[in-house]
Amino acid sequence: MRVMERHGNAPPDDIPLVLAREGHHGPVIHAANRTARQTGIHPGSRVVDMRAICPELQVEYADEAGDRAALDRLVLWARRWCPWTVRDGDDGLILDTTGSDHLLGGEAAMLVEMETQLSLLGLTSRLAVAPTWGAAWALARFGPVRSICGADEVDFKLGALPVTGLRLDPDTVLLLRRLGLKTIGALMDVPRLSLTRRFVKAGLAANPLLRLDQALGKLAEPVSSVDAAPQFRVQSRLAEPIFDPTPYLPELCEDLCAQLKQAGMGCRGLHLCVYKTDGDISHVDVATSAASRDPAHLHSLFRDKVDAINPGYGFDLITLAAGAVEPMQTVQNHLDGGSDDDLHLTRLVDRLSAKFGPRAVSRPALRESHIPERAEGQMPALAAMTDTALVTTKERPLRLLDHPEEVRVLYAVPEGPPAQFVWRRQTHRVARYAGPERIAPEWWKDRPGTRLRDYFKVEDQTGLRIWLYREGLHEDGRGGDPRWFVHGCFA
Amino acid sequence: MGSLRVEKRLAGQGDQPDPLKHTLSEIFPARVTDAAAVGYLLARLPRTNAPVLWVQDRLSRRESGRPYLAGMGASRPIIMVNLSRAVDVLWAMEDGLRCRALGAVVGEVWGDPPALDFTATKRLALRSEAADVPCWLIRRAATANLSAARDRWRIGSVPSAAHPDDAQSPGPPRWALDLFRSRRKKPGQWVAEYDRAADRLYHVAPVRDGPLDAGDGAARERAAG
What we know:
Chain A has 491 residues and is of the alpha+beta class.
C-alpha cells in the first residue's frame, strides 16, 4: 500500500506548480501537481528547461527532511488500522494488514476507510492490497484505483504493469526498455536462464529477477516495524564531546520528572542513552519496583551504573527516556512530615536491586508442597501478598541447607534414627529424637525412581538439634542401601 | 498507622526518651551450624507485621543454611538479600536502616572481614538508633574483636528437657545466653527455654549438679523409698 504525500496547503489545481530541489546542475523538479504534469513536466528534469515549456510555472523549494519526518509520524498514526507499519522509501507506507482487515469490514471497506481518513488529513493517497511488498508497491503506483490482489492472481495482475513497477534504478529500467521489455509480463516470459546470465552480478536494485521474485513472493521480504518513540523523553545536547554523563544526570532527571508530573504519570524504568561521536550509541537501563517520579530517587538508581557506559571517543548527546509509564496519584504526606511506609520500602528495594541486581533481592513465600525445599518459593520482593495463609502443622527447622549434606551413619537401627553420625568431620551422638515423618516423592513432578524420605529431628549430646533424613528404605528396589542427609537445623 | 504515630508523638512531648531504644546487637553463635542465635533473635523481634530485611553473605548461606519460612512462621514477611561480600552486606544493612518501615534488619557475616571494623559497626549502631529499627548482626566463625555494638551475645544450644508427651523426643529448645558486653544492661549468663506456642522466653535455673540432673531424680526417689 502506498500513500502519496502532498506537500503543503493545496494551491488551486489549475495553476502549474512544482517543488524543486538542488541538483547537480541547478534546481531540478522534485514533484509536480496535476496541471503541471499535464503540460509535460516530469520530476527529475531541470527547472530552467521546464520554465521554457511552461512560462507561468510556479516553483517552490521542497522540504525533504520535513516530509520524511511527517511520514515517520504518519507511520505511527497508521497503527490505528494494524499494529505493524513501516515507512517505505520517501513516499510510501507499508502496512501489514494480515488479520486486521476483517475488523474494518473486509479489504475493500478497509481501503475506503483509509482513503477517507487520509483525505481528512489533507492527503491524497493511492492504495493497494497485495500479498507481497513488491506487488503492493507496483499496484499502488501503476495499478488501478484501490486494487485488491489475491495470493493466486499476482502473476496476472502484475503482468500488465510497466517494468518501472519493479522498484529498479533508472539505469536498469532504461536497459530493459532498450531490450524491448516494457511490461512485467514481458519480463516474466523471457527464459530465466538468459536473464540470469546478464544480471548475475547486479545488486538488488539493479536486478530485475530478484525484484520479480520479491514481487511474486518467491523471495522473502520481511517488514521490520519501528518502535513507537517513548512518550516521555528529555535530552541534553552538549557543545563538545564528553566522557562522563554524571554531571548532567540530576538536571535530566528533574526535567523528566517535571514532564511526568504534568501528565500525572510515574515511570517504572529509565533508559539512559548516549550518542557517541563515532556514530554508535550506548545505553543503561534501570528499573523500579513501583511507579515513581521523584528525581532524587531516580537519580540515585544510576549511582554505580554509569560506569557501564562505554564512552568511546566521547558523546555529545544524552537522552533519558521513561519506560513502563503508568498513572500515578500524588500521595498526601502525613501530618508529622513522614510519608507512607510502603513508599520507603519500594525505594529500598529499588536501591538494593539497582546495586546488586534484581536476582539478589527476593521474598520467600510458602507454597503448597510437602517436600521441604519446594515448600518455599522465591518471589520478587514487593510482589502482591497472597492472602492464602498456608499453615504448616508439622515442626520445621529455622534453617534449611540449600543442598542436603550426606552424613556417614555409624550404626543405624533399621527403622529408626542413627545412634551416631558423622557430619562435617564431627561425631554426633543422638541423645533424643522425634520421628520419623515420612514424605513421599511428588510423582507428578519427580522423575521415576525418586525415593521417599523419612525425616527425624535429632538432638545430639551437646544440644544441637538437627533435621536428618533417610532417603529410601531397605530393599525398596530403587537403588542400594538408603543414604542419610542433614537438611536443616532447629533452634 | 500514621495517625497512631502522630498521637504517640504528641502524647510523648516532654517525656524522657525511652531508655531501651532499638539498637545494634551482635550475636556470636557457639557453633556455625547452631540455629539458636536465629531462634533467640526471632524471639526478641518486635511483634509487628513489618517486613524484615535479611542480608546474608555467601559463606554464611552455604555453611549454615538459609532462613526457612516454614519454620519461622509466615506472619512476618522477609526480604532476602543474597550477597557475596561482607562489604556489600554492610552496605545493604546500612541502606536498610534508612527505612523506618522495616521491622528489623538482620545481617549475617562470616569470619572477620577487614570491612567489619569499629567504624562500620558504629555506623550501623548510630543508624539503627536514629531510625529506631532493631539491627542484629550474626557473626559466625568470628572472634569478638573491637566493635561498637551496644549488646554482644554468645548463644548456643544446650540439651533440652524431655518432651512432655514423648520422653525420647526433644522438648522446647533451650539456649545458653551469655551477654558478655553491654552498654545498657548488666552482663550475665542465663539458660532460657523458648515456648514457641506462646512466643515466650522462660529462664531456667541452671542445674549445677550434673549427676543429679542426669539421673532425673530417680536416685533420690530410690533413696526416699
